[in-house]
């Protein structure tokens, strides 16, 4: 089933791209420039497309990012540090981001005769990002069935999994984790202190897999561990 | 209820902007540059915002328009001539366009504490554009309730009306029809032969209102009249 994937260059979406390629479904990678401060992730998405030998579509929606202000991911608000589960992480919500990315990806998929759009949302995102929850994904699929008259399917195989499960899956398909970018701060190295760095480091620990990432602060995540 | 409207600069959306302003709901106008060949419509949307004294958000999604090819509205395919009801008008479908515009507008509305997004789809669009049908609009509203946790409503008061009804409504609110642009060809004047010109001219006739538009071919629409 010809499938394109929305890929940020992060661990989750690169792992899913490798899973789709492993199963011979991958037909293209779509990445978005939405004026995110961690724009360097886009180079990792391009690298993934290159590694997997599929077309790379970089869609410039930076004008949308500017119009939608109020998130630490796009604005001058400081990126919060600590565990994702904390209240402060709500500052990283870009309102309606997944819905926007998905509708654009569905348009591209439809125009290019693809049969599915994949997105790598997972269980760990659910609490603070409403547009990562299973009920959102289901409603989105129903809406698109009507908009495009049933031609493109939504695929989200990690929706019921944890980030540790994704790492375990990525190991099976040969995902090069070192060639993925998570940090919201977008510096030279992963900071080790923002929500997505802490989540990444913790997930490798929970999966029992060596983390190949260099973090500027390699100890901070331990102070955020639950229990 | 603070409401922003997706406005193309066309007759329908400008009339709805005037209706919303008349009822004191209008808080902003959002227009999209999607690499449409009739880009001159955007100046009419800006003029509408200026007339009604509300902020104008021009969102550049031309990169999306380029990625979604295959429509006469964005590509080098000839714009078909004749009545909208004809099979050839399917060439003017940009896949998923309204869904894309709406998700972006919902993001902007949410970030700016607006309570509703208005779109001027109407009965006459239903047959060839699936993303203008009432069942699509309903599914879209449900999806957004989940994505944004119920903060923004979808408003489409013209969904059950004809274009002639819209003209009658526009007369009541003082809509300056001459300051609206419909033609898909985007020339100096309305061509009078493309689907949207024929529909516009016919609607004024059916509404019994004088059409202030200058058409290059002012007679063609009559040959397209049904019965």
Could you characterize what this model shows?
Two copies of one chain form a homodimer. The N and C termini of chain A lie far apart (43 Å). In chain A, β2, α2 and β3 (56-60) form a beta-alpha-beta unit. By secondary structure, chain A is α/β, with parallel strands linked by helices. Chain A has a single domain (3-169), classed as 3-Layer(aba) Sandwich (Rossmann fold). Chain A has helices spanning 11-22, 41-52, 62-67, 97-111, 134-147, 163-173, 195-207, 220-224, and strands spanning 3-6, 26-33, 56-60, 116-118, 153-155. The model of chain A has no long low-confidence stretch (mean pLDDT 88). A five-stranded parallel β-sheet of chain A has the order 3-2-1-4-5, with helices on both faces. The longest helix of chain A is centred in the middle third of the chain and has 15 residues, at 97-111. Chain A is built from eight helices and five strands, in the order βαβαβααβαβααα. The radius of gyration of chain A is 17 Å and the shape is globular. In chain A, α1 (11-22) packs across α6 (163-173). The A-B interface holds A 57-61, 63-64, 67-70, 94-100, 102-104, 106-108, 110-111, 130-131, 133, 135-136, 139-140, 142-144, 146-149 and B 57-61, 63-64, 67-70, 94-100, 102-104, 106-108, 110-111, 130-131, 133, 135-136, 139-140, 142-144, 146-149.
